[in-house]
Design brief:
2 domains
Length: 217
Amino acid sequence: MRQILRPALIAIVLATIALGIIYPLVVTGISQVVFPGKADGSLIKRGGRDVGSSLLAQPFTKPVLDRNGKPKVDSDGNPVTVPDPRYFQPRPSVTGYNPAGTYFSNRGPNSAVAAYAFRDNMTAYLALERPYDPGLTAAKVPVDGVTTSGSGVDPHISPANAKVQAYRIASQRGIPRSEVLNLIDDNTDGRSLGVLGMPGVNVLKLNLALDAKAPTR
């Protein structure tokens, strides 16, 4: 028995040292030297502080205030928020934009639960955008305006989705819609390698460009 266990234990220890310690340290060291920004999470900084990652979606919200002007909280003590109309909004997220646990809804096309979710997302989308674009109908809403991504934290929306939101942004920021459309074009990423995927607009980068162009009051 000792002749069997001893080599097995030695193999486990050596494998742990090689693959669990040495290999991660080497890969981490190379990554920090070759592409430190990506190795650290593709963080975006403004004014010396981290404002987000170009790889992760984040909500752009504002607190709901009660009659006394204080932020409302739910039964769990969490602040109640709504989308901030001054900013472009990411696509819906089943994870609540939590990067610590990314997943998708796993709802099939014939799922009644999916139909209810899409209905609620559509209602929320139209409630936010239609006051600024009265001709907007459900048929004109881009699919990513009501569906979640596979990870729940996709940082991009479609250019069509961004252009629908441009009416609201132009009104809220007091600038011509043409200037908002130019910002969208400037922050639209093309297909990977020219052929893979679809063009997308990084919401965080677009909102940062928007703040630089037309700061909020």
